[in-house]
Amino acid sequence: MKRKQGLSRRRFLHAAGIGATGVALAACTTPAATPDDAEGEAPVAETPEVVFWHPTEDRATNLQNSFNEADLGVTAVWQLGEYDQNTKTMAALAAGTPPPVSYLGRWQAADLAVRDALVVLDEYVEGAKTFTWNDIWERLQKDSILWGKKWTIPYTTDTRALLYNKTVMAEAGLDPESPPLTWDEIHEMAVQITRRDDAGRLDVVGFTPSFGNPPVHLMFLTLIWCLGSDMVSEDLSRVTITDKGEEAMVFLKQLMDDQGGYEDAVAFTRGLSLAEGIDAFSAGKVGLAMHGQWVLRNYDRYTPDLDFGMIPGPVFPEYDIHANYDGGGGWFFFKQGGQVDDAWDFVEFAMSEEFYVDHADKFHLLPARSDVGAQWAAIDPRREVFAATANTVRWIPIFVGILETLGDLANMFDNILIGGKDIASELQIAEEKIQAVLDRHNEFPVPS
To answer: pTM for this one?
Structure first.
């Protein structure tokens, strides 16, 4: 439970010059006298340490060092964690040794909550001093609340824009100042951009899910969102990928077939040998791509002369829903990790406006706080296309076993685009498998 107003037990002990560890030891033994003791001076207490896991060294080091320089009575210690996997996290839980706090992908909230691994954060959020819950994008608030409780503090998000290489477009005879606004225009321009060499091998591809982000099969979700549908129903009771899935996959298969086939595009983009910091888009090998704000960092550094533009993703005109996809991570507090108050102090610092703006700018991270996100976008006008959609973008639903279901989507995607299997049948197979996982999610008792 969140500590109330006034000094916490740890703060009291620190103020009194006694570390929490020292109190525990004092219950067992009497410390030996020291010269300082003899002179009546209290020994200097060691600053308590709180471990946090984070998967990225440069970001984690900045968090650690900045917090420690603030001298808030706790020392943060970074250890390497994970993000889109949970192997290390699950092993630590099994051993009873998780950290107090870890930065993980938001999708993990349900899987960890039903294992009784997480601290419910409602009271901590209510007492927060450096931010309010309403500071956070509403989209991210929704992802963080399951079974009516808050399980994570969102920290980063990311959205997608359509990137278009003006040089590649001009070489294909297209107007580089008139990028595609609809999916049909994507189709038309992609075919015109695609080029093969004298041996018949792909040399430039117009548009392909094998490059950019969302990665590969998650482009399927982007398309059904553009068609006004979703992966599951709002109440998480029914899988709905067959509602618009066939229309989405027919479109995507035709788009790829008209560029020579998805399999060729996959082999082409994966087989490119490029210098550090260069990708298929900045190398001029992909003309149109959905991608996130983080690419600007490398483009500015490694290809400063790259001539490209960014606009909101394409639409199907009858729905007028821009293609987009988001993700991002948040702070998870583990019951077995202990030190919840210390970990909360660390996260409150990370969420504080002054630090947050600088940190997000330095690492091209779209903040989870909408007010900080506005400041982040104002630093570089190119970021506005990403920040503008942070409250309307869509993402995978969060339920127990969601990662397993993405494997089912990937199999469906490949079986259709590479294996040439029947679209309706593959969608039905995937839907049935995902429904079984969703049913298991709904059978779990509400975690406490």
So the answer is: 0.87
